[in-house]
Amino acid sequence: MRDTVGTSVELPGRTCADLADMRERFPEHTPLWDAIRREFWTHTVTPGFAG
């Protein structure tokens, strides 16, 4: 992952970074994490299932 100026940012040693981990490590990017969460659930929840 790279920040906005192109500097490499080391991620945890897992296959994928967990959104909760990223929120803790980079709280200044809260709007980004919120957008990722919103998009994930928009595409994950079956239409009509959430009410």
Can you tell me about this structure?
- The chain is mainly alpha-helical.
- The protein contains two helices and no strands.
- It has helices spanning 19-25, 30-44.
* Oligomer description: single chain
Number of helical elements: 2
SSE string: HH
Q: Please report the distance between the alpha carbons of the first and last residues.
A: 36 Å
Overall mean confidence score, pLDDT: 78
Structural class: mainly alpha
Keyword list:
mainly alpha; 51 residues; 43% helix
Q: Mind sketching the topology for me?
A:
Blueprint: H1 19-25, H2 30-44
Give a brief description.
Helices cover 43% and strands 0% of the residues. It is mainly α and 51 residues long.
